[in-house]
Amino acid sequence: MQIMGYKPLEQDYRFWLVVNPATWLIPTLVAVLVVALAVHVYAFSLPDQGWSAPAPEAVEAVAAEEAAPAE
């Protein structure tokens, strides 16, 4: 296979000479972990998100609205 004078099957090894997985795999995975943790921290810091339960007054108000007859 040849694309515009480039033979990827014969010349793609050059990429791995620069981006050596033995050197860059762990730092890349650590960077992905840091980004994932940052996204989760931000998402859980948004209002009405995360693990916190609603206040008891809000739960009682919703229960009272559901128990009221529909008009």
TrEMBL record:
Which cellular component, as a GO term, is one annotated location?
A: plasma membrane light-harvesting complex
Give a GO molecular function annotation for the protein.
bacteriochlorophyll binding
What InterPro entries does its record include?
A: Antenna_a/b (IPR000066), Antenna_alpha (IPR018332), Light-harvesting_complex (IPR035889)
Subcellular localization(s) per the UniProt record: Cell membrane
Task: Give residue ranges for domain Antenna complex alpha/beta subunit.
Answer: 12-45
Q: Which SUPFAM superfamilies match?
A: Light-harvesting complex subunits
Q: Name one GO biological process term.
A: photosynthesis, light reaction
Query: One short Pfam family name for this protein?
Result: LHC
Q: Which residues cross the membrane?
A: 24-44
Where would you say this protein principally sits, based on its record? membrane
Q: In terms of domain of life, where is this protein from?
A: Bacteria
Provide this UniProt record's keywords sorted from A to Z: Antenna complex, Bacteriochlorophyll, Cell membrane, Chlorophyll, Chromophore, Light-harvesting polypeptide, Magnesium, Membrane, Metal-binding, Transmembrane, Transmembrane helix
Report which residue ranges the record marks as coiled coil.
Answer: none
* UniProt function note: Antenna complexes are light-harvesting systems, which transfer the excitation energy to the reaction centers.
Check the record and name the NCBIfam families matching this protein: pufA_517_ASD
* Listed name of the protein: Light-harvesting protein B-800-850 alpha chain
Organism field: Marichromatium gracile
